[in-house]
Amino acid sequence: MAASTFKVIVVGGGPVGLVAAHALTKAGIDFTLLERRPHVVIDAGSNLVLTPVGIPALGQLNLRAPLDAVSSPLGRIDRMDHEGNDLGDVQLFSMMKELIGIAPRVISRHDLTRVLYDTLPSEAQKKIFGNKKLSDITSTPTGVIATCADGTSYEGSLVVGTDGAHSLVRDIMRKLALQNGPSEQVNAEHPFLTTYRCLWLRFQRPANVPEGVTCETHGPGLATQLFTGEDSAVAAIYETMEKPTTERPRYTRADQDALIERWGHIPIIAGEGKLTLREAYNSRQESGLVSLEEGVAEHWSWNGRVVLAGDSAHKFTPSTGAGCNHGILDIAALVQQLNAICSKAPNASPSREAIDSALQAYQEKRRNTIVAECDRSSKATAAATWQNGVFKFVDKYVMPRNAVTRFFIGQAAKGAARNPSPNFNFGSSEVQLGKKEAWTASPVMVRAH
Ligand SMILES: Cc1cc2nc3c(=O)[nH]c(=O)nc-3n(C[C@H](O)[C@H](O)[C@H](O)COP(=O)(O)OP(=O)(O)OC[C@H]3O[C@@H](n4cnc5c(N)ncnc54)[C@H](O)[C@@H]3O)c2cc1C
Prior knowledge:
The protein is an alpha+beta fold. The chain folds into 2 domains: 7-69 and 106-191 and 295-437, FAD/NAD(P)-binding domain (3-Layer(bba) Sandwich), CATH 3.50.50; 193-293, Alpha-Beta Plaits (2-Layer Sandwich). It is 36% helix and 24% strand. It has 13 helices and 21 strands. The protein has a 7-stranded mixed beta sheet with strand order 5-13-14-15-12-18-21, with helices on both faces. Strands 7-2-1-11-20-19 form a 6-stranded mixed beta sheet, sandwiched between helices. A 3-stranded antiparallel beta sheet has the order 3-6-4. α1 (15-27) runs parallel beside α5 and α1 packs parallel to α10. The longest helix has 33 residues, at 352-384. The chain is globular, with a radius of gyration of 22 Å. Belongs to the paxM FAD-dependent monooxygenase family. GO terms for molecular function: FAD binding; monooxygenase activity. This is FAD-binding domain-containing protein.
């Protein structure tokens, strides 16, 4: 059981922040979660694929059954080029099921956040506050004060920034480091680089296309990924930008229309359910155009007072479905460290030095894996958008060879079995994952969604 005086302020109630609420509750660590939107359950955004990276950890939080009830398993990936020519299918998902024991599942952001919120004990739900936009963090001799735009402030021992890719917590951490900390703890002002923009669309699943279908269209400058769920279909369209940027471009509805003007003729479902991007766009229920930042922050914490997790610490292209799944594992590793130091001093708050060491250990445990996974994701997007002749060759001729997929998944499973995976089982009640479920980072060169 954790120290009663240690308190975490979680900033950001996206999927990773909500998983933090579960993990902290499970570890008996007090927390307050501040979310700038009115509520943490959101009915917006693209769908997500939960992969064997994140699913076992969610299972340890007893979330697997409620998430399974509102998500769909994925079958094979059908692939074609911009002209609709078959590029060969990839049996990635069924092989994951066969070799690892877990099949990836697609879920809407609404259902994911709803399940994560609804399954929290009511006492934990009362610690979550909407309409609380963080504006500043002050470090004090005993902890931190998080101030919100509405003038309210919250005291705690540590701020956990789960406030996404454009993290204010990360910016404040940088400011604090520049003001007070040793220079080597200062992150770059813009740690992420954007090479692609992504249009995502949600529309009614076409009646002649079954649930659980994954279709991808690959070719120079643009790739699409489409998943069908029970009622809806969601497509993500990755477009190579004219020039990579570290700035944050803002997009309007006119930018979405312009992208459709450029690429509307591209097929996103082949064969019987044939559908072009323009047809899907015209029948959309919801859409958005976002930058796909990529990168890993150099420093994930500052001085035992502030720490980053999820997209605030690292941002992947979504091609391998890794961002959120790895954010979940960040929380597992972080809360394990916090639980360990709290358990050593059950009636007092751990010292700043002890918290700082725990945060360093957390980064050490996660960062190398994340750098490798970010690179893998980047290569997957580069291959799908045929960034050069080598990527095009691999995408057209190597990827469809299921023996290759099988080899990489097999290697990944073996590697994962050798490494102890971070998990949410704290203290003496620790439960070991089954061999097939002992899946950490996936050294898979292929697309996971
Ligand atoms: C098109 C697309 C498809 C994707 N597909 C997948 C996939 O299949 N699988 C996968 O694992 N990942 C996927 N991702 C990535 C995934 O969406 C992110 O990794 C995930 O959402 C990160 O969660 P997070 O909680 O860290 O950040 P976010 O989801 O960005 O949540 C951050 C939260 O912080 C809040 N916030 C921000 N600033 C403040 C502030 N100042 N004060 C208070 N609150 C604040 C925001 O309102 C938000 O609720 C995809 C991404 C995109 C764009």
